[in-house]
Design a protein that fits this description.
alpha/beta; TIM Barrel; five-stranded antiparallel beta sheet; globular
């Protein structure tokens, strides 16, 4: 595809509620983000993705919007956001916001009007069905039926996620027009684009028929009938033409359920979005993204295969958005490295492995410090709706209370949502009062103040890695070059990045022992160009990788 301005970005995701509290109420806010822009500029990121700050009752931490055009008071004001946009521009940085248009909050004025008057035009902005029982046996993403009874009448409304998140009826053109006006209003504010939430859910199977039950509750997960359904392309193309194309903005879609052969519709030259996130390797430890208790035993070879399959598919159709953490995932060091999560070289190798893949790298707040999962002692310590649902569903499926708690600790979205540790003070310098969510226990050791300026720290590693990609002598190869997997040992992930003029082979040892790797056939080493620690040991066509070592070698074809 043609070169696009957004292909050179390095994106940093901010969960505002947990980033920095500027007014000491225990909740992060917009002024807190503005206060820390110099930290982000120093790190080297070029674009900020800010999770929802819109008016919301916060049942799902902002992904339940009650007013798209108003800022939630705990985050500040529209003026605070306008100031943040201008301050980022002054630092040559950009902002993208979350776009949540599959559903609203049940406190949105549209839904409130729909409840008051069945004959209101807003009643058709949502999905209502008449009857004395649930219309079908579909299970919502957060557990229980997708149908919630309307108090006082024989009617149900549909919610693919939480019961306080009624789905919008995209079949209604009047509703779609309202959405497009809102999207353009925000783009006119000067943001660079959107991360588009749960967008493959906007089209449903309109037969509304029962599905084969797949759980002890007798329900069937709604993804079979309300995600990536035939006909969704008409909605997505219209959304793109009426909003995104008019502003030449960047869009990153959360688009689970799209088969690789269908990626060309979603991304690339004529795709609905600039990029998409692929969750196949992010969910390699569970059988389904919505059922954490179905655990899968995996090895590095499995991770390698999933990442490379993803990369080759994305490369065929367009440009990917590469990540190992976000607000819906546990901490990567714990999930991917397991017992090695405390080994700094292992954490750095994991970081480099994903960061230099083909596509735009996304960094989630705290990832650059090497943050790890927490361990909670009871379900009462969790805030996340999905975590609480999975705890009780696990026990319904036969797990003990202790096993259910272990599963949720491993997978909870709260792992990534704990307040950011700025220093070693109480509450990590995030706030002077008790935060809305408990800290992770390691914050006296893992914090920004402790790591900034320390050569061997995780923060400085990320900073140098960003600088190497963005401004180093091999930037064109790492930003625009193609990718190809290399064969290697079972505990090594290896790939080749290349352009017409340059080839760089990259090896990542995920074991605690030395491993010898053979150079790809027909190539010889020109020079080592990067490693996470130590020196490159080359010996007669072989590379000796130290435990948890990453090595990049510039190669050329043998003469």
């Amino acid at each position: 595809m043609k070169k696009q301005w957004w292909q050179e970005e390095v994106v940093y995701q901010i969960y505002p509620k947990s980033f920095k509290d500027s007014n000491n109420d225990g909740i992060g806010d917009l002024k807190g983000i503005t206060e820390k822009l110099d930290y982000l500029k120093d790190l080297g990121v070029t674009m900020l993705w800010i999770c929802p700050v819109y008016q919301s009752p916060m049942d799902d931490n902002g992904y339940d919007i009650s007013d798209y055009l108003t800022i939630a008071p705990e985050f500040g004001t529209i003026e605070d956001l306008e100031e943040l946009i201008e301050e980022t521009k002054d630092r040559d940085m950009k902002i993208i916001l979350d776009l949540v248009v599959n559903h609203t909050s049940d406190e949105h004025e549209w839904f409130q009007q729909a409840l008051k008057d069945r004959d209101s035009r807003y009643h058709d902005y949502y999905i209502f069905k008449e009857g004395q029982k649930e219309p079908n046996n579909w299970r919502s993403i957060f557990g229980g039926s997708v149908w919630e009874k309307v108090p006082g009448r024989d009617e149900y409304y549909f919610h693919a996620f939480g019961r306080k998140q009624p789905d919008l009826n995209w079949e209604n053109p009047e509703l779609r027009n309202e959405i497009y006006e809102m999207v353009n209003w925000w783009l006119d504010k000067g943001i660079a684009g959107f991360r588009v939430d749960a967008i493959t859910f906007i089209k449903k199977d309109l037969s509304w028929q029962d599905r084969e039950p797949d759980g002890a509750d007798g329900l069937a997960k709604c993804t079979k009938a309300s995600r990536n359904q035939p006909g969704i392309g008409e909605f997505l193309l219209e959304l793109k033409e009426r909003t995104f194309d008019r502003h030449q903005c960047v869009t990153v879609a959360e688009a689970p359920g799209v088969p690789y052969e269908g990626l060309g519709d979603f991304m690339g030259e004529n795709g609905y979005f600039s990029m998409i996130f692929d969750f196949r390797y992010a969910d390699l430890d569970i059988a389904s993204g919505s059922e954490w208790f179905k655990r899968i035993d995996w090895k590095i070879r499995d991770l390698n295969d999933k990442i490379m399959a993803s990369q080759m598919a994305l490369q065929t159709h367009g440009w990917g958005a590469n990540f190992i953490e976000n607000h819906d995932q546990p901490r990567a060091a714990t999930k991917y490295l397991k017992e090695a999560q405390d080994n700094p070289n292992a954490v750095k190798t994991l970081a480099a492995m994903y960061f230099f893949l083909r596509g735009v790298p996304f960094i989630y707040q705290g990832q650059e410090l090497g943050m790890k999962n927490f361990e909670r002692n009871s379900i009462e310590e969790f805030n996340d709706l999905s975590s609480i649902d999975q705890y009780y569903r696990s026990m319904e499926e036969g797990y003990s209370r202790e096993e259910a708690l272990e599963i949720v600790n491993l997978r909870s979205r709260d792992n990534a949502r704990t307040p950011f540790p700025w220093n070693e003070e109480q509450y990590g310098g995030f706030s002077s009062v008790k935060p809305w969510l408990g800290m992770t226990k390691e914050y006296p050791e893992i914090n920004a103040e402790f790591q900034i300026g320390k050569i061997e720290s995780m923060y400085e590693f990320y900073k140098n890695m960003i600088r190497f990609r963005q401004k180093g002598p091999h930037r064109d190869c790492f930003i625009y070059g193609k990718i190809e997997p290399l064969s290697g040992s079972s505990e090594v992930i290896a790939y080749k990045r290349y352009t017409e003029n340059e080839t760089i082979c990259c090896w990542f040892n995920f074991s605690d022992r030395e491993i010898e790797e053979v150079f790809p056939a027909g190539y010889e080493v020109v020079e080592p160009v990067w490693q996470n620690y130590g020196e490159s040991v080359l010996d007669r066509g072989q590379l000796k990788l130290q435990p948890y070592q990453s090595v990049f070698l510039k190669m050329e074809q043998s003469k």
